[in-house]
Amino acid sequence: MTIIKCVRHGELEYAWIDGYWFGDTLLEDMLFRVIPDKLHDGEYMVTIDPEFDDDYWDGLNKDKWLREAKDTVPDIDLLICPKCGDNYDVENPYYQEPTKPPIELKSMSWNDVLNSLLKKTDDKYG
Ligand SMILES: [Zn+2]
């Protein structure tokens, strides 16, 4: 069974993520709960923390943001313990390390090519 665990408080019923992760300044400081699904291992639910489930949402598409929140969970390696507060000190069991495409090397050499081209132009007209 997947467990969300704080180094200080042990097993947690849920951990928080900050809305900033997926909603930028629109949802900054708004906390969402990541709740392990006890029936389906490896699954989790995301809900708006009741404290933040207020009028603010009247003009917003709640379902859309909850979906965004759920999709974002695997991108975050650390979650917030509701007992510790602010610090991201809960290891996210749903974190999926991004697979790095080999594009980094490619773009570096492309930069090199550009730089050398620019340099050549400079040499010519400089
Ligand atoms: Zn804690």
Characterization of the model:
This protein is an alpha+beta fold. It has one domain (4-96). 30% of the residues lie in helices and 20% in strands. It contains three helices and seven strands. It has helices at 20-23, 62-72, 103-125; strands at residues 4-6, 10-12, 15-18, 31-36, 44-48, 78-79, 90-91. A four-stranded antiparallel β-sheet has the order 2-1-7-6, with no helix packed on it. The chain has a three-stranded antiparallel β-sheet with strand order 3-4-5. A hairpin with a 7-residue loop joins β4 (31-36) and β5 (44-48). It is elongated. The model has no long low-confidence stretch (mean pLDDT 87). It binds zinc ion. Zinc ion (ZN) is lined by residues 6, 8-9, 81, 83-84.
